Amino acid sequence: MIILDCNLNFGATNNGNPYSNCDTFEDLCAEMKRSGIDGGLVRCTYSDTVGVNYGNNFLAEKIKESGNRYLFGVWAVLPPFTDETPPPDKLPSLMKSNGIAAVYINPATHRYVPSELTLGEMFGVFEQRKIPVILNTDRGVGMDLIYKILSRFPELTAIVGDSDCWPNARRLYPLAYRYKNVRLDLSYVMDAGGIEDMVSRFGAEKLLFGTAFPNRYTGSMLAVTRTACISEEDREKIFSLNLIRLIEEADLS
Amino acid sequence: MINNKSRIAAEFWETGKLPCYIRDFHAHMDEHAQIYFPFSSAEDMVADMDRNNVRSLFFCGHFALDDPLYGEKYNVDAVRKFPDRLRAYHIIHSRCLNPVKEIDEVDKNPDIYVGFKLLGDYNYFPVDSAIHDPYYDYLSQTGKLLLLHTWGGSGYDGYEQVYNIAKRFPALRIICGHSFFGTHKEGIERTRQFPNIYYELTAVPIMRGVLEEIVNLAGSERVLFGTDLPWFSTMHGVGMVLGADITDDDRLNIFHRNGDKLIQSLNI
After folding, report:
1. FRET partner for B183 with CA separation of 20 to 30 A, picked from A25, A85, A231, B15?
2. How far is the alpha carbon of A253 from chain B, nearest alpha carbon, in Å?
3. How does pLDDT run across A59-75, given as a tens digit for each residue?
């Protein structure tokens, strides 16, 4: 069974935290090999800590070099008013040519006001073209904002993650029930019976395997997903098929 | 495969079953006002234990944690339903103490209780306060367990408070729940001189690299497995232990060997 992780990142930091770092792309690949993860969506933290283009370009180079057909990049995007990242109409084809399959926003770190004005045009394109957008509370997007974005763009293909270390079903389930193109990142779904409960409620199709590596141990969610009391068909969807489908559905022409 | 350097991890991945059993020293039970749990009853928890090769589970239910008047009886009821699998920690509510009655309950019911649990942060009360001395005296004399919620930076149950207790009650067996999360390095360095202190793993999985450091600093012989079930899946903690950069011998110590020794000494 192919295993794809929707929440990987790498990049050296100078934040003084002795834990949870994965400095290089090569370190990331080594950990994937050690733990049996075949690929997935990977983000470069330099887009948050150094410069958006610095990180995006660095990531694209590494993705190309890797030659891993299952590894896809995630670019940070900015509102178009400062012309720092490609405009929404040019972005999809650039993503395709650079091995990028999804985008994320981090308005807190990138210091802009997330609003209809700043994000509306971009998100309209993402919604129309089914480009996966990562909305993760670990990246400067609160649950309130996620609710607002999905209310405004109900067809958006969104990968939602809530990094709160307490079980978070009361915050996530409404989104999974209401919005057909929402997928939940399982990186933070640690509670007993959580996966089984979600599969029985809204189906395995809504769930993407994730580990939040290097912040968290890859082994934790591998073990949870490997042993969840669900069918093997559902397990395969969660481990890889759902993400592959999401990537294939995106219009990056 | 989780970890291509571990025989135990390889067997687990192949079969979906852990090839060794687990002793879980830190769990809860029943519903909680702030959280939706898909399952949380005693029956659910024992079914989860069966699936995941957990031989014994020591817990203190949410009702006991949060209701100082009526909650404790639910601990008793659960253990009576599953006497071969469950044991409880009697809660200590620092602002609602009745040491004579509570120590008597623990003492007269060894088939129910393995000791006491205390959460300084939740009581907003320091665990090293002398008002807890009767409990600590009793536990020191009997060898029963004290499970403390310990958290980094806390003035109620941080490592200084634990150090103060251990210094005054060196025979007291203290399980540091969460291993001073956030300050585990400083906490272990401060407290490891006391051989009756153990470091427990709930919350640790959410920060990669911490388990390795705990094992390096304290030795795997001082580490106990715990889940916080139903907050965290048993497998979430198991996966961390399997995937961490430690040896298979360390893993066996953590999963059950250390727990076996403690339990043997409790005569359960």
Report:
1. A25
2. 36
3. 999 999 999 999 999 99
